[in-house]
Amino acid sequence: MKNVLALLVSPKTGPRSPLTWRPAVLGIGGYLVAYGVIRCFFGPQFFDWNPVFSPDGRRIAFNSSRHSGGDKHDEIYVMNADGTAVRRLTDNDAQDERPSFSPDGRQIAFESNRDGNREVYVMNADGSGQTRITNDPGDDHAPAFTADGRKIRFLRGGELYEAPTGGGEPVRLTKAPPAIVAVSPDGGKLAFSAGRHSDLHVMNLDRTGDVQLTDRYAYPPLVEPGSRREFLAGDSSLAFSPDGRILACESDRDGWDRWRIYRINVDGSGQTRLTNGDAHSPAFSWDGRRIAFTRNYEIWTMDLDGSNEKRVTRNLGIAGLFATR
Question: What's the whole-model pTM score?
Answer without folding.
Answer: 0.82
